[in-house]
Specification:
Helix content is 35%, strand content 23%. The protein has nine helices and ten strands. A six-stranded mixed beta sheet has the order 6-7-8-3-9-10, sandwiched between helices. It has a four-stranded antiparallel beta sheet with strand order 2-1-4-5, covered by helices on one side. The chain is globular and about 50 Å long. It starts with a strand and ends with a helix. It binds adenosine-5'-triphosphate (ATP) and magnesium ion (MG).
Length: 265
């Protein structure tokens, strides 16, 4: 379990970014985090894996605590961060080396490496690209390689920080599909996004505003709440659903719900 316990963070003392934030994420959950520009989402992501440390409060992962220096290595092994720009995440020249790199850092024995590399690339459907150069791949392929490099290290939590925002619609769909598959295989997924349609894949949504959690609940409950800001416009289908006043709860199969209702009228 991941626990934020009354966490505060600032870069500059006079400008608090995260204020008294507490929440828990259970193992195996799929949580979306949304919020306006500059609301502190990336800061929160970095607090999860100890890239940033709370100024007050604690971030714990099971028995580990990011404030304990000896725990940091284990925490970073367990929490994989996928960033917005896959280019920033590449260090080597081939897809194979890219995935091997992290394993070498973890001192994984040679004989264990290849099964891990192949498994990770298969999970993102990039197993045919071992010798490809990461920089020549499409945006979505790059992002999938970045995910494979993390998966090979066998994390228990994957944090995606706007990892789909530079991709075209089809590539976004592919990455979301990868997230869902990984979630089904037991990984905890934390998906930071400003695409409101993407949060419908999550079981739960946290809305971050001015450094505090303003909403914690299901995606459909968020869309039904009145306090959304202009930056967080629900997907068209949800607005249509609300406008029509249809008394049917929206779940992750919302597209189907809308299609069915629409064809009945
Ligand atoms: N290294 C830093 N030094 C000083 N201030 C920073 C630093 N990084 C972020 N900030 C500030 O902290 C606030 C929150 O930034 P953060 O990147 O966490 O927001 P975000 O919700 O991820 O935004 P975006 O939607 O643009 O990705 C912003 O006001 C930002 O300017
Ligand atoms: Mg950000």
């Amino acid at each position: 379990m991941l626990v934020f316990d009354q966490v505060n963070y600032h870069y500059r003392r006079e400008h608090p970014i995260i204020q008294d934030v507490s929440f828990e994420v259970q193992e195996g959950e799929f949580v979306a985090i949304v919020g306006g520009n500059g609301s502190g989402k990336s800061t929160l992501a970095k607090l999860i894996n100890g890239l940033l440390l709370p100024r007050k409060g604690q971030v714990r992962l099971n028995q580990l605590n990011t404030l304990q220096h000896v725990d940091l290595k284990k925490i970073r092994e367990q929490v994989g961060l996928v960033f917005q720009n896959p280019e920033d995440q590449f260090i080597t020249t081939t897809v194979l080396d890219e995935v091997v790199f992290g394993l070498e850092n973890l001192r994984i024995p040679r004989e264990e490496m290849m099964p891990r590399v192949e498994g990770a690339l298969q999970a993102v459907r990039m197993e045919d690209y071992l010798d490809a150069m990461p920089h020549q791949l499409s945006g979505g392929e790059k992002q999938r390689v970045a995910i494979a490099a993390i998966l090979a290290m066998r994390p228990s939590i994957l944090v995606f920080d706007e990892a789909t925002s530079m991709l075209d619609p089809q590539e976004r769909k592919d990455i979301l599909e990868v997230m869902r598959t990984l979630h089904q295989s037991g990984l905890t997924i934390i998906h930071i996004t400003h695409h409101m349609d993407e949060i419908l894949s999550a079981d739960r949504v946290l809305l971050l505003s001015n450094g505090s959690i303003r909403f914690d609940g299901t995606p459909s409950a968020l869309f039904n709440s009145v306090s959304l800001t202009d930056q967080l416009v629900p997907p068209f289908a949800v607005r249509l659903h609300q406008t029509l006043g249809l008394d049917v709860p929206l779940g992750s199969d919302w597209k189907e719900t809308i299609t069915n209702l629409w064809s009945m009228h």
